[in-house]
Inverse folding.
């Protein structure tokens, strides 16, 4: 059913339809509307979940960890500093192979404190063992939560999944969303049946000490599952299409006008909507430009990226995060996809834009395409204000 | 399942460890229908080194400071499943995991009113990492990070009053106990579990490595802490003190001289006087003196 709703409300609605046993969260902008709406649904009796209001994000993550280990479906949401405060537990949840689903309302990291959007928060937790998928719009944000539960709870996977949606741009944006109907949700996402759980009828110990004789295999197992999840994403996407009609292809990347393109921008999240607009405009003038949108950042789809870009002469990677002192995060992956390969772009330039909520406009994207020349650049910042830099560094 | 199988022998605790005995008494008092969330620390390490476990009840360890929050999640899930009334949920950890790094999670668990018993095994320092001082290390104790030296007679602060902090949350039941009085531990755990809501029991558990006593003296050392007034045993009900173990106070030297961690004080009457003052203050505060 089509609804014109705020992104956060749409997420709360779809989470309600997944019937989580336990929800726990701590308020942080711009995640708040999601959990407020869920609290209201519990208060109204529309949602039978236990809603646990905690004293910190560390405890929010710990509560859903404990509940998931007890065998129920769980949900939490956070952002920015909250995600960083959870970090220890975030790694722990993956190590314990618990299929927690979390929304990350992407937001910049302090200092300076800034509540607006970039993707530094979730990207910084890329090594945690969570599957990370990034939504371009609110329809995807809604659908990806169903896919997240389906994938994470798959017995072949048993990993946590983070659905990343740009803070404010998506969480507070009003869009028309085709809200999945309950009967279809039930068909696509059966009730959660855990492999193991804390149950006095069958007592087990979870979270044991693994010494050097045992530790490495646990990490290897997650790495293998991550690699295999590349295929499971495609498989689940096909099932999603058969139930809901929306086609996310392999759920790894989206190719937009890449086939004959001479210049392709690689990006992730809501900025891709703006990029598509620029591409349409430039294509109408006969310019061969395209977009490769990364949907699954973990696992990273190297083979798909290679296939999509192997014949493209020039690639611009647009990161909404930085790895201070190194190449930008997505750019590193794109370059790695081509190392030692016969085919590949002559130039892979890397651009950083939109940090701390600075608007990425049509002009910003135009600037990226202009700077994408035969001379490769790395972590080239777009839309810097020269007058502020002068203030900072002097003449 | 027989209660004697809920905490099995064969674990790797030190000889003379008070925590191993107290933990066994706690789980046996609770019975087979129990789920335990355990903080990182000695108890976790010596009972669950993969692929072995000493636990006969469902047991989970996540991190150092979050057992109260993990237990909150377990309890919420059991409530959702409609099973909470038949299952006891226990969170447990050491004094550092409870009163220092885990205090926030513990306070959250108490304030939210979860039906959970939190048990703190108080051996008065970070023993698992090599005897560093914690917020619950007593005044003048020689530890590896509050060492005795020319400028120092040991830990500069008295114990953090965690039981009182818990009681201030207005929870239905708070108690202290001691490995020196095993039947009292059993009684208090059973009493706590008969009450709905958040409960806190702090058990004094001697540590042979950190305290440096002869291993066969463990029970005697624990008893002396209580009998000198240095470790008062009491019960708070709904924020008000309801019961205490009355004593005929012994001088604190009798306790201090049993342990290497206090050895530096024995030739120093000024410092012993300060410790006697701690005991005297406890005796007065909790009205410990037998009539």
């Amino acid at each position: 059913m089509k609804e014109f709703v705020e992104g956060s409300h749409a997420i709360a609605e779809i989470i309600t339809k997944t019937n989580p046993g336990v929800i726990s969260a701590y308020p942080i902008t711009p995640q708040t509307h999601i959990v407020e709406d869920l609290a209201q649904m519990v208060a109204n009796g529309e949602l039978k979940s236990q809603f646990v209001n905690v004293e910190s994000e560390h405890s929010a993550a710990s509560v859903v960890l404990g509940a998931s280990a007890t065998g129920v479906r769980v949900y939490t949401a956070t952002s920015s500093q909250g995600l960083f405060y959870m970090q220890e537990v975030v790694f722990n949840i993956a190590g314990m192979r618990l299929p927690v689903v979390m929304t990350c309302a992407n937001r910049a990291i302090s200092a300076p404190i800034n509540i607006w959007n970039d993707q530094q928060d979730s990207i910084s937790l890329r090594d945690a063992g969570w599957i990370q998928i990034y939504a371009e719009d609110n329809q995807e944000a809604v659908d990806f939560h169903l896919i997240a539960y389906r994938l994470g709870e798959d017995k072949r996977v048993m990993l946590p999944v983070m659905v990343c949606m740009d803070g404010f741009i998506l969480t507070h944006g009003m869009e028309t969303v085709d809200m999945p109907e309950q009967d279809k949700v039930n068909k696509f996402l059966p009730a959660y049946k855990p492999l193991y759980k804390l149950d006095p009828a069958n007592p087990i110990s979870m979270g044991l000490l693994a010494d050097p004789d045992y530790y490495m295999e646990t990490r290897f197992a997650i790495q293998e599952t991550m690699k295999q999840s590349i295929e499971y994403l495609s498989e689940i996407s096909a099932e999603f299409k058969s139930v809901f009609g929306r086609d996310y292809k392999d759920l790894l990347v989206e190719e937009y006008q890449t086939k004959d393109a001479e210049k392709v921008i690689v990006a992730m999240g809501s900025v891709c909507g703006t990029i598509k607009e620029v591409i349409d405009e430039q294509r109408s003038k006969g310019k061969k430009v395209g977009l490769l949108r990364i949907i699954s950042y973990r696992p990273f789809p190297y083979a798909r990226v290679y296939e999509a870009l192997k014949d493209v002469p020039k690639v611009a990677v647009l990161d909404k995060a930085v790895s201070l002192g190194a190449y930008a995060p997505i750019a590193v992956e794109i370059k790695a996809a081509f190392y030692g390969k016969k085919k590949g772009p002559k130039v892979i330039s890397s651009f950083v834009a939109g940090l701390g909520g600075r608007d990425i406009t049509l002009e910003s994207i135009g600037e990226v395409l202009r700077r994408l020349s035969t001379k490769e650049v790395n972590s080239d910042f777009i839309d810097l204000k020269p007058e502020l830099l002068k203030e900072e560094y002097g003449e | 399942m027989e209660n004697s199988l809920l905490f099995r022998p064969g674990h790797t605790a030190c000889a003379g460890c008070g925590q191993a005995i107290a933990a066994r008494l706690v789980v046996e008092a609770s019975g087979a229908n129990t789920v335990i969330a355990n903080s990182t620390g000695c108890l976790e390490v010596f009972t669950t080194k993969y692929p072995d476990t000493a636990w006969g009840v469902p047991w989970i360890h996540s991190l150092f400071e979050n057992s109260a929050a993990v237990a909150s999640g377990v309890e919420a899930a059991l409530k959702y499943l409609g099973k909470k009334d038949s299952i006891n949920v226990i969170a447990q950890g050491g004094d550092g995991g409870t009163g220092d790094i885990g205090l926030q999670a513990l306070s959250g668990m108490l304030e939210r009113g979860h039906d959970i018993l939190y048990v703190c095994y108080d051996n008065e320092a970070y023993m698992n990492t090599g005897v560093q001082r914690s917020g619950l290390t007593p005044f003048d104790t020689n530890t590896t990070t509050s060492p005795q030296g020319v400028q120092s007679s040991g830990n500069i602060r008295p114990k953090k009053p965690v039981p009182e902090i818990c009681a201030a949350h207005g929870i239905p039941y708070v108690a202290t106990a001691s490995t020196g009085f095993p039947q009292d531990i059993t009684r208090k755990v059973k009493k706590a579990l008969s009450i709905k809501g958040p409960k806190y029991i702090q058990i004094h558990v001697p540590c042979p490595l950190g305290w440096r006593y002869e291993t066969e003296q463990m029970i005697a050392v624990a008893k002396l802490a209580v009998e000198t007034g240095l470790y008062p045993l009491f019960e708070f009900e709904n924020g008000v003190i309801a019961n205490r173990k009355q004593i005929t106070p012994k001088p604190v030297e009798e306790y201090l001289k049993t342990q290497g961690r206090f050895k530096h004080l024995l030739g120093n009457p000024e410092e012993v006087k300060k410790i006697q003052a701690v005991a005297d203050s406890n005796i007065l505060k909790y009205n410990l003196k037998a009539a």
Observations:
- The domain at 3-285 of chain B is CATH 3.40.50.970 (Rossmann fold).
- The longest helix of chain B spans residues 269-285.
- Chain B has eleven helices and ten strands.
- The beta strands of chain B are 34-38, 59-61, 88-94, 117-122, 148-149, 152-153, 173-178, 199-204, 234-237, 240-244.
